[in-house]
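Changelog excerpt

This revision adds worked examples to the README so contributors can see how folded entries look when concatenated. The first example is reproduced verbatim below.
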Amino acid sequence: MKELDPLPQIVILDISMGSGKQSAVQEDGLTFIPELKKICKERKAPMPDVLVCSMYEDPFLVQRAMDLGAKAYVAKSAVAEEITAAIDAILAGETYTSVKVKTQNKNKTFLALTRRESEIVSLVKQSLTNQQIAKMLGLSNRTVENHLQSIYEKTGVASREKLISL
């Protein structure tokens, strides 16, 4: 993106962006959105609209993507017409999600999470281990464990499995 001129009008990205190596840490594609904002600011260029196309249909991840600045979220299982509808919505200045976000029943405990805790919940929901999360975020394993303990207290769950099912 730093070298593209002009920048695209729409960027399509996935949440899971593995390196192709089984032993490598899986990258969280949503971290690209703030980086893209920085690139645009440095270049004094307009921010391209972001469409997230992912296998994850978790309302928490959809909300995280939208909070970071994505304009649309489409499940990979969607038909081509739905992807086209998302692009059309973006071009019309609207947002689009193919995944039903439970806004009326939104768990208030998520609102109490810090930005870092939200990132960690998102990575846990992608089935990453504490070690992988620590490496990805540049933290120690102990720091990840401390964040998880705080998350468990705030959400009222007692295990990783229950956190994933929220």
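The second example, added in the same revision:
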Amino acid sequence: MTRFVCTACGTQYPDSEAPPDRCPICEDERQFVPPGGQSWTTLDRLGVGHSNAWRAIAPDLFAVQTFPAFAIGQRALLVRTPAGNLLWDCVALLDGATEALVRALGGLAAVAISHPHYYTTMAEWGRAFGVPVWPHADDRTHVVRPDPCLRFWEGETRPVLPEVALHRLGGHFAGATVAHWARGPGALLVGDVMQVLPDRKHLGFMRSYPCLIPLPPDTVRHMAARCAALEFDAIHGAFADRDIMADGKAALGRSAERYCAWAAGMREP
């Protein structure tokens, strides 16, 4: 029996003798099935030609990303706190070297996931480190590999560590979540629930980024208002170098205003 991993989105499936017939995560309108169709790998095979690289982003904040790029190509973030470490989102590859490095940094106290595109091998991470994995209950139907380590949380806010709380924003998915890290001036970890754009001065808001499905302005206003109530300066996104290191609250405010203005039919200046 093998736990197959979708090469297009990185989602891991339960034990089976043959690869799944389809990947519902890819078939959802927010993602896509590649032109060549679904294909599958395993963690062992993935580890033959891929490895994870680490980068320090800020004090006690590290990014881990797989090279060559695999599936969606996101990074995961490891947040070190006095009460234990949080892994924010997942990369699919969890190998011996990665596990050893995480343990050298203090191990994990919890894993939290922004939305289903980054579920990947979350159960592997939870089981390897013996910690709870926190996806939002509104996205429960997108979980394809159930496991006792999954802790579905409900409502709008969930503390997971003394310095870190999860906040449901919706938009990209019904349970789409950001993490608020209250250390110092504060930081938001946003995945691509709100995507830090290449200029690192603005954020984007979409139901689907690859398929270019926008969100209604009222939804974006709601997302921005929820975040405006939090104290933060930095915003850290899902991809390499997508970090707003200062004035993040102002960046979010002007980004939401710009989006809503264009969605309402703003004229070319």
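Reviewer comment on example two: The longest helix spans residues 248-263. The two ends are 60 Å apart (CA to CA).
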